[in-house]
Amino acid sequence: MAAQPQYSCEPGTLKFYGYCAFGGALSCGLTHTAVVPLDLVKCRIQVDPAKYKNLGNGFKITLAEDGAKGLAKGWAPTLIGYCIQGIGKFGFYEFFKLMYSNALGEELAFTQRIPMYLAASASAEFFADIGLAPFEAMKVRIQTMPGYAANMREAYAKMSKEGGNPFFKGVKPLWMRQIPYTMMKFSCFEKTVELLYKNVVPKPRAECTKSEQLVVTFAAGYIAGVFCAIVSHPADCVVSVLNKTPGVTAGQVLKDLGWKGCWNGLGPRIIMIGTLTALQWFIYDSVKVAFRLPRPPPPTMPESLRIRLEKEGKL
Fold this sequence. Notes:
The protein is mainly alpha-helical. The chain has helices at 14-34, 36-47, 55-66, 75-104, 106-111, 113-144, 152-159, 171-199, 210-244, 250-261, 266-290, 303-311. It is elongated and about 70 Å long.
């Protein structure tokens, strides 16, 4: 009986990207849906800070007014929207990372790996957000406008009759929020994994079990998530207010919020995004393990570059 091959497919094949897209859909869709109650209260703090003063107060008022069921408002557009976004975010990241790496060549792909991660993640998120925008708009209306719609079907029916393309009105602020977030999420994660194996994990990655590798993935994901939340938070505030308030521009919202107002709800968002990002990377990497996808180890210096640097006395 022939031994099972180490990998189920090669990087760059349609099968590889299909599995990556599936892992992205699971990782983003499930995690964002799981934290809908926290996201709902965070959005309400952002759009009505006078009423919802902090996280505890926001939960208390929401439970008093809507009951426990009210904390699940917006779950359907969250699940569908973030599954679509996850397909684009992770699937396209793998595509662009491989494309840019091949274009740069082995040595530059190593020495310029951080700019490469940044470029690949920004490219992927640009397309992912186009798929997310309509669902994010419906979600915010359901969560922050009492009585507007009980579910996604009602929100779609009302919004489709409005002028000014309300489904994509928030796509530019969404890019402002999500592109810096994703650039931080992927580049910080990749670099943190590299540093953890170099300085914290007591043995090389090749000698670690799959479970040990997934623990490193989770830890790196959480660290990346904290930074993600901070860099993208002002734009997140703008998106929440913009989708709730028809007829205003992102510039007007920024002016009304002011510098301090742009940081409303940062505490709960750090908790939410840190946990979310860690779980997303854990789920995504678990899918790669389950389907036996290639999972390259942390990058090492190409032999040709090492030899050249040694000759030049730079090593």
